[in-house]
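Subject: two folds for Thursday's group meeting

Dear M.,

Sorry for the delay on this. The cluster queue was jammed most of the week, so I only got both jobs back this morning. I'm pasting them in the order they finished. Each block is the input sequence followed by the predicted structure tokens. Could you check whether the formatting survives your parser before we put anything on slides? The first protein is the one we discussed after the seminar.
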Amino acid sequence: MVPDPGAPAAPQEQNHVLAGELILNGQRYHLVPAEPSMSPAPASDVRLLTSRELQVVSCVCAGWGNKLIATKLNISTWTVAAHLRRIFVKLGVDTRAAMVSRCLGAVSLPPTP
């Protein structure tokens, strides 16, 4: 059946999601609407993270860059990057913002060092 171009469109469910920019500690982040299926990571996903990975997540949540995280945790920036890659894989995300979003409601994070 071909839809009639003059017929009114069927009502669609609308999700009002914020989009825009966020500037945090001088860093500019672009916020885009999340997919409707995106939700906080199940607790089981976050429980896959090691204590060190949770420390890294906590630092990223505080807005710290890799250099500052490395300095505060006494590790190299390469090690920070490796932790982030493993965290992304475990949580099924591909950005720092998505990682923070998945972790914030799922588990209590350790305080930043």
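Second protein, same layout:
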Amino acid sequence: MIFNVRNASAKKYGRVRKGFYFTLTAGEVLLGAIAVAGMFFPAQLVAVFQKDPEVVAIGEVALRVQLVALFFQPMTVCANMMFQSIWKNGRATLLAMLRNLMYYSEKRLTVPV
């Protein structure tokens, strides 16, 4: 993203856009491939760490949910870094707060007090 800061300073916004899309595409392809590969064998991946059938059943569902969420990770990271690098700090902060709000509200709903 240093690339984006320098080009944004020079007002070469086409380069900034190309760099953003390249980073986003590379992240989506790499993490998407990992997520798709993990979707085929979630029970086996969980069983590597724990052999208890009940734990494997719960872990399989949890891993599938996490792998679906993995598809959205490159977009949130790239967008947040882009906003920071082009001096839109308020938007970057808002995006990070929304991401944390979604994470913690889900945890609050699923974990008993």
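Two things I noticed about the second structure. The helical segments are 2-9, 13-40, 42-49, 53-70, 73-85, 89-110. The mean pLDDT is 78.

Cheers,
T.
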